[in-house]
Design a protein that fits this description.
With about 550 residues, this protein is an all-alpha fold. The protein is built from 22 helices and 2 strands. The protein has a two-stranded antiparallel ribbon. Helix 13 runs parallel beside helix 20, helix 15 runs antiparallel to helix 17 and helix 15 packs antiparallel against helix 21.
Length: about 550
């Protein structure tokens, strides 16, 4: 039995403990050592995540590199790990982004100049921040690898704790005099929304176990449960299945987030540091959309099909609503947050369109949105740290004094609006094609989200980067070496996956096909299929439309 998955999960967890236990960062040298140790552990995690993805065989079993250790034997709970193509790709995304976030946040956790000597902020602030980031990474990766429903639930909820402290304790210093109160409000709102979702899911998890136990399947093992549902050994019943589906889906829709359960996200991203905002929207929120694929569709196939039209409507509202509110924002970070709500609408739409193109595109969208939004948000963070303001109106003419910063900000914005040649275009195109083939009206309305995305992305660039140079930004520095090291790999991945997404599609497509098989769905047949003997004339030329039958 391989221990590669356990090692991938354990390294950031150990790193969090080691980082927290380092000598207090009361001097610059000690703080630098803390940061380097955390970065080394995140790099080791990345190497292991790459090894997992490299060892995954797309032509092999659905779940590979499986591990299982007895945990709570009396309830059939195990520490069971296994990776499919979707989990491998999303764990790799997490492992790529965490070192980037740590580099981008290099000085975000340094004590303020006014911090009292000997206070927590002066002594332990740096250790706490970097340890919390590594703890989030460990919990997210476990969630992507977990094949025990109860194990997944534990880490799905546990990741809220470090995120709560990251939002509430290490907020954006550009927030003004009310920043501490606003951070506290954002952190509590984040926690309460997600705890509510988690409690509803816990009731559904218990209900699933009770029903399974009554039918001789007293286990939380996902593979056992999904195969039992598929072959009829586990009969959930129509009403029970719908109730259980809604319990799971509600928790995932809060985490994702899906309109109208989204209202915690703009507060959390607006008040958090740029690095923490990236963790929220590019890493933690992806657990929600991933779980819709793995748990909702796998365990409750009939209920998934029943509620799919309603979920598509909610996704469509989220796409348009998020984009419209992004256009009207005055705060840079809240604009990115509302743009993410719109993008999550596309992801969830692709999942519940229940076509291979839609679900493949949704999975790619999770990855591509994570990379492009990370680039956009982190460059925005560099911009805000220089000016000390999140308000769009406080900027103007930045491209004349900091052209590299402006250029990378433009690339992030163009990726967000899904410009062809950049990674999000591929995923958005697949989602729209997959949705249109089954739900044409939904696909057509969703395309308006692309137009609105162009508005908020280009208007933000125009208002901040072009025009006369404002006096307050005249002395603004361009990106430094460390900041370029943060942005360069994200830009490179955005371009690479935009022109060559095949490595990712090869990994995720078998898992997508297996998911569609679980819900007994196939891709809709083309409206006007071309048969082999009627598609071309004997001389090899295409037949005319009149000859086609």
């Amino acid at each position: 039995m391989s221990v590669l998955l356990t090692a991938t999960c354990a390294v950031p967890a150990v790193g969090a403990v080691v980082t927290a236990a380092l000598p207090a960062g009361s001097t610059e040298a000690r703080r630098r050592n803390t940061k380097i140790v955390a970065l080394v552990f995140s790099a080791a995690t990345l190497a292991l995540a790459v090894a997992v993805a490299a060892r995954f065989d797309p032509d092999g079993a659905r779940y590979q590199l499986t591990e299982s250790y007895s945990w709570i034997r009396s309830f059939g709970i195990t520490f069971a790990l296994g990776v499919d193509g979707i989990g491998a790709v999303l764990a790799l995304l997490t492992a790529v982004l965490v070192p980037v976030v740590l580099l981008a946040s290099w000085h975000d956790a340094d004590p303020a100049a006014a911090a009292p000597e000997g206070s927590f902020e002066n002594r332990r602030r740096t250790q706490a921040f970097f340890a919390l980031v590594l703890a989030v990474e460990a919990m997210v990766i476990v969630s992507f690898y977990a094949t025990d429903v109860f194990l997944f639930y534990v880490f799905f909820e546990a990741m809220l704790i470090p995120m709560y402290f990251l939002i509430g304790g290490f907020g954006d210093r550009a927030g003004g005099p009310e920043s501490a109160r606003q951070r506290s409000y954002a952190a509590v709102k984040f926690l309460l929304y997600n705890l509510l979702g988690g409690l509803v899911m816990l009731a559904a998890v218990i209900g699933l176990y009770v029903i399974a136990q009554d039918q001789g399947l007293g286990t939380f093992d996902l593979q056992t449960l999904t195969s039992a549902v598929a072959d009829g050994r586990l009969q959930l019943g129509g009403t029970a299945e719908k109730a259980l589906f809604l319990g799971f889906f509600f928790a995932f829709a809060v985490k994702a987030p899906l309109w109208p359960l989204h209202t915690w996200l703009p507060n959390a991203m607006g008040e958090a540091t740029a690095g923490t905002a990236v963790l929220i929207t590019a890493v933690v929120d992806k657990v929600g959309t991933f779980a819709m694929l793995r748990f909702c569709l796998g365990l409750f196939p009939d209920a998934s099909k029943t509620f799919a039209p309603a979920i598509l409507v909610l996704s469509l509202v989220g796409i348009v609503y998020g984009a419209l509110l992004a256009i009207g924002q005055k705060d840079i970070k809240r604009l990115v947050a509302y743009a993410s709500i719109s993008h999550f609408g596309f992801i969830i739409m692709g999942i519940f369109a229940m076509t291979s193109q839609g679900q493949s595109g949704a999975t790619l969208y999770m990855v591509n949105h994570g990379i492009s939004t990370a680039a956009w948000m982190l460059v925005a963070g560099f911009l805000i740290s220089r000016r000390g303001s999140r308000l769009i109106a406080d900027y103007g003419g930045v491209q004349k004094v900091a052209p590299v910063l402006a250029g990378t900000f433009l690339i992030g914005g163009l990726a967000t609006l899904s410009l062809p040649g950049l990674a999000p275009f591929v995923s958005e195109f697949l989602v729209l094609v997959g949705t249109f083939s089954r739900y044409p009206a939904v696909g057509i309305v969703a395309t308006f989200g692309i137009v609105l995305a162009a508005l908020y992305a280009l208007l933000l660039y125009q208002r901040t980067m072009t025009g006369p140079v404002k006096e307050e930004v005249r002395g603004m520095e361009d990106l430094k070496v460390r900041e370029l090291a943060v942005v360069a790999p994200l830009v490179a991945l955005t371009v690479l996956l935009g022109v060559y997404p095949k490595p990712l599609t090869d990994l995720v497509n078998p898992s997508v096909n297996a998911t569609l098989s679980q819900v007994h769905q196939t891709d809709p047949a083309p409206a006007h299929p071309v048969s082999a003997d009627h598609g071309t004339a004997q001389d090899g030329t295409a037949r005319s439309g009149g000859e086609h039958k």
